Amino acid sequence: MEFHRKLNGGHRGARHFWREMLPRIKYRNPTVPIAISRHQDAAGPSLLHIYTSTAPSKTTTPADAPTLTPDTPAPTHTIDIRRKHESEILDLLIEHTGATPIPATEQELEEQAEIAEFKERSEKDRVEVRDKLMRVRREEELLRLARGGATNTA
C-alpha cells in the first residue's frame, strides 16, 4: 500500500484505511505480510497492491502510473484508492481477493455494546460537568459584579 503522509491530495481514505481497518485485517490474518510506503508527494500515487500466487493479473489503474514500491514481482491486483472512502477500499479489497468477512462473535458483539454504552454514559457525564462548570463560573461572575468588580475584558 502506498499513499501520501498527509491527507492532502485525496489520500484521506487511504490513511484512514491504514489506521483503522488494516490493523483489524492483520489481527485476523497474522501470516499475511503487509508493507506500507508513505511518500512526500501529495500528487503522488495512492495505490493498494495485492500480491497473490494464483489469481490472474487484474489492474484497475493505468499501466503507466508510476509507483514508489520497490522492484518486486508484479502485483496480482493494483487498486487506485485515491479519493475513496476507507469502506470503499475495504469493499474493493474483498472483491479483488475473494475474501469472506468473518461475522462478529457473541463476545465481540457484547464488547461492542459495552463500548457503545460507555461512550453514551461518558457523553452524558461530559455534558453534566460542562454545565456545572458554567454555572459555577456564572455565579462567580455575578458575585464579583455584586461586589462592584469590573467585568473581564480579556
TrEMBL record:
SUPFAM superfamilies: Thioredoxin-like
Main location group: mitochondrion
PANTHER family: MITOCHONDRIAL RIBOSOMAL PROTEIN S25, SMALL RIBOSOMAL SUBUNIT PROTEIN MS25
GO cellular component, one term: ribosome
One Gene Ontology term of the molecular function aspect: structural constituent of ribosome
Natural source organism: Lentithecium fluviatile CBS 122367
Keywords recorded for this protein, A-Z: Mitochondrion, Ribonucleoprotein, Ribosomal protein
InterPro entries: Ribosomal_mL43/mS25/NADH_DH, Ribosomal_mS25/mL61, Thioredoxin-like_sf
Name of this protein: Ribosomal protein/NADH dehydrogenase domain-containing protein
Region (Disordered): 55-77
Keyword hit for Magnesium: no
Domain Ribosomal protein/NADH dehydrogenase: 6-100
